[in-house]
Structures are given as structure tokens and as C-alpha cells.
Amino acid sequence: MKPTEQIYANYTTEDFLVWKTLFNRQLKNLENKVSNEFMYSLERVGFNADSIPEFLSVNQKLKNYTGWQLVTVPNISEADEFFVYLSQKKFTATCWLRTLQQLDYLEEPDMFHDVFGHTPLLSNTSYSLFFEAMGKLAVKYIHQKEIILKLQRLYWFTIEFGLINEDNKIKVFGAGIISSKGETEHAISNRSVKTDFNITEIMKHDFRTDVLQDEYYVIDSFEQLNDSLKQFELELEEVCT
């Protein structure tokens, strides 16, 4: 049974080795590919290769920066529960790690994805405001499945698999890319399509969770994400009328 709370003493020697291996490998892989703000955020939250992050300590740091908190869950949360937590400035994270045999592929998100990939940028004000606002929109329309689906698409192509233009260079900021060696290389390569951020198109764009993405959307800034939610809600209201 997967844990529902982080008990730090239960981590094994293999867990620490998995974290260290993934951390060092992915940090090297992200060189010159990841958003500068992610690297600043990684330093702010104090993550390193030798220590599995302790949620109590991480939560104290996040509280000081943006007021966000990690909430431990055993598995990926259902959409309704997930968005309600977001609206409360809480991010659901697993606290278990994949095995050494699963370093390159895992069917469901583990702690490396949730914590290394997602958590650092929760210390960034603009990014976390977008996260919170998305959660509040979802709560507002929680019983309208088509709108929740549109929000899931927005989440997928920004928070999970978003790219950002920094100093005329496309870099990654989505957690699904940041935590995956293969996705990082694919996203930046010429094998994938990069499209300017367009919230109207994203609302109509289906996605698959079991393959490398074939198209990514590029934002100019995290502030652009916040501004886009006004247009998003206007379009939602048109759907509802």
C-alpha cells in the first residue's frame, strides 16, 4: 500500500539512491534547456541530490514565499479533488519513489515528478497565482464536465508540458518535461512542434498521457498565463450561455 503521509524514517537506502541518481541526471540534462526561473526556484526551496525533500521543511519555505503547501496523497488525485486543493493553494504530491528498475519510465507520477518537477516553481508568485486561479475557476464550474476538461487541457499544456521564451531561446518549465529525460530532449529538439501560446486552441486540444508530446505551446512569461485566464473565463461564459 502506498503511503498517505511522509514518514521520513521509512525511506530506504535505495530511495535515497533513486533520488540522487534522478536529481543529478536530470539537472545535467536540463542545462541550457530549462527556464532560469526554475533554477532560481530550485535554489529557493533548497533541493539537492543528497537529501530527499522533507515536506514539513518544504512547506515552511513555500509558506514564506507564496503561502502554498504540499498535501500528501497515495496516488494521482481525481480532477475534482485536485482542483479544489489548488483553489486552496495546496498541491497534492506523492511521497513514494520509483525503484532503480523504473528510472526511465513510470506509468503514474511519483515523488520525483511531483516534488522535483512541480514544487520549486510554487515559490514563484506569478506562477503560483496562475495555479491558484485555475483551481478557483474549476471549483466555480466543478459540475460542468466539458469545462473541467478544458481546464485539464490548459493545465496539461502549461503546468505539465509548457515551454517559455526566455531571451529569444525556447526553454522548458512544465513539470512533465522537467522530470523526464526523454521528454526534455524531445521538447527542445526539432522533432516536436512549438506553437505560440493560444488559449483558444488549447481549450480544443486533446492530449495523451502515455506518449511523448507532439506539440508544445510557448509562453512569453508567467504573467501571460495569468492574463490568459480572463480570456479563458470569457470563453467559458460563452459556452455556458
Concise structural overview:
Helix content is 51%, strand content 10%. It is an alpha/beta fold and 241 residues long. The longest helix is centred in the C-terminal third of the chain and has 19 residues, at 222-240.
Give the percentage of residues in beta strands: 5-15%
Span between N and C termini?
45 Å
Order of helices and strands: HHHEHEHHHEEHHEHEH
Q: Level of helix content?
A: 40-55%
With helices defined by DSSP (H or I, 4 residues minimum), what is the helix count?
11
Shape: globular
CA gyration radius, whole angstroms:
17 Å
Mean pLDDT: 92
Overall number of domains: 1
CATH superfamily: Aromatic amino acid hydroxylase
Total strands: 6
Mind summarizing the main beta sheet?
4 strands, mixed
Low-confidence stretches: none
How would you describe this structure to a colleague?
- The protein is α/β, with parallel strands linked by helices and 241 residues long.
- It has one domain: Aromatic amino acid hydroxylase (Phenylalanine Hydroxylase, Orthogonal Bundle), CATH 1.10.800.
- 51% of the residues lie in helices and 10% in strands.
- It contains 11 helices and 6 strands.
- Strands 4-3-6-5 form a 4-stranded mixed beta sheet. A two-stranded parallel ribbon has the order 1-2.
- Strand 3 (163-166) and strand 4 (169-172) form a beta hairpin.
